[in-house]
Amino acid sequence: MKRFAFLLLAAALLSLRPSLYAQTPKTMSLDKTLRENRWQKRVLLLVAPTAQDADFRQQKALLAAQASELAERDFLVIELLNDQLSPASRQFFIQKTGLPPTRFAAVLIGKDGGVKEKSSRPMKPEDLFGTVDKMPMRREEMKRVK
To answer: What is the pTM of this model?
Structure first.
């Protein structure tokens, strides 16, 4: 019963945070999406050849239970599926990260717009949050909350 209540709470939190999780930016280029979120959000790009990619699905599952932690750290999660990317967004992604969008990658973009971490395997949320929590900007944010 407690597990069911937790799952309901998690689902409710996800529904309240529509800006936390974005699908592939179809109306806006990846470049523009990152520019508009600079200094506002930390962006986690989840890149995969298709939505059926096992690592992609595993990463999404790992993050699904962490909605409040993601929100606390001002995350925007963007799915980039190679089979749905525009040529311009594909090229921008390659230039920005040095990675091909033809296989799974998780890429952390800091609020300053710089690439902070890249992984070709799903990232454990605690590792992702540990990386962010060491950043000077995040430390300042944590001081202000106390």
So the answer is: 0.79
